[in-house]
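Reply to thread "Modeling small-molecule complexes from scratch"

Following up on the discussion above, here's a worked example others can learn from. I took a protein sequence and the SMILES for adenosine-5'-triphosphate and predicted the complex. Inputs first:
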Amino acid sequence: MKGAMMEAQVLNPDCELGEQCLHQILTDVIEEVKQSINQDTVGAEFLNSLLNAPWLQSLLKVYECLQRYLRDSPTPTLGCASGLSFQLLFDIRSLPGCSEEANELYSLLQQPHMQTLLSAHDVVAQKDYDPALPPMPEDLPDDEEATRIVCLVKNKQPLGATIKRNEVTGEIFVARVIHGGLADRSGLLHAGDRILEVNGFAVDGMEPKEVIQVVQSRSQGTIMFKVVPITTRPVNNQTMLYVRAMADYSPQQDPSIPCADAGVSFRKGDILEIVDQTDALWWQAKKLPSTMDCAGLIPSIDLLKRKQRELWWSQPYQPHICMQTLSIVEEEEDLMAIDDKCVEADEEAFESEELREEDDNFTTNEEGIYIAGFRLSMRLCRRQFHSSTQACCHTRCPSSCYSTLNCPYEEVVRYQRLPQDAHRLLALTGPSGVGVNELRRRLIEMNPNIFQGAVPFTTRAPKAYEKSGREYFFISSEIFDSMVYNNRFLEYGEYKGNLYGTSIESVKEVLNSGKICIIDIEPNAIQAVRTHELRPYIVYVKPPSLERLRETRQDSCIITNYYMNRSFRDEDFQEMEEAARKIESQYWQFFDNVIVNDELHDSCIQLLTVVRKAQDEPQWVPVSWIRPITES
Ligand SMILES: Nc1ncnc2c1ncn2[C@@H]1O[C@H](COP(=O)(O)OP(=O)(O)OP(=O)(O)O)[C@@H](O)[C@H]1O
């Protein structure tokens, strides 16, 4: 702007900057910009439209006037022009015969516009800007309460306040003012104000419902409240808080909510902006993304915990997944009796299958680059745990088993990975057979320089062709146990007497190398993966409809506990659908993204988009990942 002014000064030498003739300067600048528009410059067009804007022109004119006023600092020649005009009117009227000019002056001074102008002149001249209040009535009783008349102009929006009745006195109070609602924006109604009248109706003794009827009888227009304002208003020192809901909530199904219409319903995984926590039981929040100004009621963390606990106790007892120990798994393995109808693949069979994998290029890509983390034993070991009654939890479990009960809202912040930060771990999960490994493999194959799997650990002996650190890290049972003891595994388990596990170190090694680590995890390992060092982005691979499964998996094969690569059957699809339902009901809140694996090609493209999003776009992540809680 300074540059523009200098330029303008050159254009019009008659205009001195000292005289503040900005308007003239601007006109010259516009002229200059017009010429540059001929050169088809987009920036110049924009500047032209900006400088031509009527509001800017008017503003500058006002500015000039004010500058002139400040410079001249005029003083009024008289302070009571309206008084003088009355005197004149009186004098003219009392003249026996008056000239034409006197008559014209009389009619001019009599005009309301002129009188208002003179009166405004006097206010400015006398600097008498305070409102004139009527004198206080002298017979006011000493105990008279100060009342306030509040007029709100209601449109179709709700008023944004709830009321309650004092059961002893029958008085009606404003219970709460909803953040961002009409009442809140007016700044005139506050929680604790006692309502005396609504639209002229005295409300003392009325039921809250009746009061609301009076309010609602006027859906639009002015609503007048006569209130006794609360004397000590709580200081509003609210800070904005963002949380991820870990439970579902429906105000319509909650008999304890003070006003269901003011409630906000939410589902697991929704992000809520909490704007008011004044009330110990009912907070005010907005569900994001939101275009609404007005917040609504949600249960506070303590109240929601209580509700969750009540619900939990009212449900039939189920042994919790985290209560199982390794010995139980061993028993589970015994339960894996050989089904007459199945041919159980024995160790040898698996070995030969593993060899065949190599031949099939299953773990090497076209360039012969080895892809870690797809070995059958590891996959079968995990699958066995998953399919065996879902009762085992061989995952590092830093949070409590009842984490949802302990923390129905998880505090989150917006996190944008910086280019110099390690990539976020990409963890895929889904029901067995849905295609998690297929998608993962394709992604790594497409771009082995960008994506890499984590090399698992095992206690089994290496085969002749295997290399430690490639297929597996081969370690002793003692070392494996100590790693378990030290919580170094994201998940681990036993298969045919050997232990297998994915360690945090394996994942970190990939991340530290600058690549994107992509792993598949069982849903019950999600909690273990969600740490600030890995900052995982969790993608749920969801099966499409049964119909689409039948259509798309016609030529695909499934690896079951007993069969290698057998064709999908209808019961596999049904099992997959059932497993998906269970996973979604338990873990939905942890999913950052969902891919419905319908057409494989489309799913791969979707996954690539998701990966880019995960690494390059801001995401809501637990606050503890950004500000780790230090233990004292
Ligand atoms: N969208 C798809 N269309 C057709 N076939 C698919 C699709 N996705 C995966 N498949 C095939 O389904 C079979 C099972 O997929 P995959 O092995 O990836 O399952 P998974 O989810 O890893 O399950 P598990 O962990 O139990 O092995 C494979 O033969 C795979 O090629």
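What I'd highlight from this example: The first helix runs from residue 2 to 11. The chain has a mean pLDDT of 78. Questions welcome below.
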